[in-house]
Amino acid sequence: MEAPNFAAMFIARFMEGVSASCIWISGLSLICDTAPESKVGSQLGAAMMGLNVGLVIAPPIGGALYNRFGYRGPFVFAILVAFFDLVGRLLVIERKDARKWGHDPGRGLATGVSIELERRQTVQQQREFDKTQMDDVSIDVPQAVTPQAVTQPTTPAEPAEDSPRRPQISTKRALLLMIRSPRIATATWATVVFAITISALEPTLPLRMQEVWNYDSKAVGLVYLAMAVPTVFMTYLSGWTSDKFGAAIITFICFIAASLWYLCLMTRVLWFFIMSLIISNMLLNGVSAPLSAEFASIKRSINEIGYAHVYGAFNIAYGLGTLVGPITAGQIYDQASNGWRSRTCDSLVLSSLE
């Protein structure tokens, strides 16, 4: 906000991107670690829905604050929102802390009866373990006491750990396991395709609407708002259905359906163009929750890696796609003889390949 030159603003934006990446990875990991396995998709869909709600309401709020308070208004508002977000994160109770109080969120809602049964089971297991330890101790009654028997002390048995600890794995080992996994390769490629396709609209859609229908920035902004509203519900719906039918089938259906509607974006009929744009964007955003759930499923199938590892790969793939998408789409739109059609076919081919 108060950057005196471009270099300072660049550094600030870079640090903002780093912090956003860390929050994104840790947030998804926390959700997957806390939510029951059967509800991971719907919980991730709810998180994506919250993201889309913010994307819908933020531009009008930022515009109103800019008109009323000037350049610093939106920044002050963002700082306040970030402060309350920090307070909320400090109040989060992690799963390892909740289990100390007899509640495991990863197993669903625990009742008083289930907690008592689990406690009794733990006590019984401890008693059986102690009995086994006592049976293993053999007492020899010597015929005659020798000096060696008197002087040699008995080595006490080391106390057993309450629960086995997960072995620590190096970053290199985790990376090798992920590279060798075909499921991670497929999910990462799908994330790159999703990011390229969704970000390719950013530089080209305003140009297309201004060229064909002479839309100004306000009209294009309304179109973007109409595109964003349905995605609020689509992300949760796709996450919920992925819990029922699997992430792979929902991702495949969303990609194929979105690619079919991309064909309709070549029309010059305004109402049909906007309708096709809204539906294709809604279907494409429906990929995000199942893809996130698929990464969580991959982690559960490879015990040696953690959620942070797989969502780090997810974040890298998404960042790579959002870097490549706008650049290539802008170049195609500018250099090709029919830029919009070429760019649309490019997105269509990518979605179909997935």
CATH class: Mainly Alpha
Order of helices and strands: HHHHHHHHHHHHHHH
| Count of extended strands | 0
Task: Tell me the fraction of residues in β-strands, as a range.
Answer: under 5%
Number of helices: 15
Q: Averaged pLDDT, please?
A: 80
Low-confidence blocks of residues: 136-165
Q: Main β-sheet: number of strands, strand sense, barrel status? A: none
How many angstroms does the end-to-end distance come to?
A: 41 Å
Q: What sort of overall outline do the alpha carbons produce when their principal axes are compared?
A: globular
Mind telling me the CATH superfamily name? MFS general substrate transporter like domains
Q: What structural class do the secondary elements suggest? A: mainly alpha
Please identify, by name, the CATH architecture: Up-down Bundle
Topology-level CATH name: Growth Hormone, Chain: A
Helix content: over 70%
* Count of spatially separate domains: 1
How large, in whole angstroms, is the Cα Rg? Answer: 28 Å
GO molecular function: transmembrane transporter activity
InterPro entries: MFS, MFS_dom, MFS_trans_sf, MFS_Vesicular_Transporter
Membrane topology: Multi-pass membrane protein
Transmembrane segments: 6-32, 44-66, 72-92, 221-238, 245-263, 269-291
Account of the 3D structure:
With 354 residues, the chain is mainly α. The protein has a single domain, classed as Growth Hormone, Chain: A. The chain contains 15 helices and no strands. It has helices at residues 6-34, 40-69, 72-90, 95-98, 112-136, 147-151, 171-179, 182-199, 201-213, 217-245, 247-263, 270-285, 288-301, 307-335, 339-353. The longest helix has 30 residues, at 40-69. The protein is globular, with a radius of gyration of 28 Å. 27% of the residues are buried. Pfam families: MFS_1 (PF07690). This is MFS general substrate transporter.
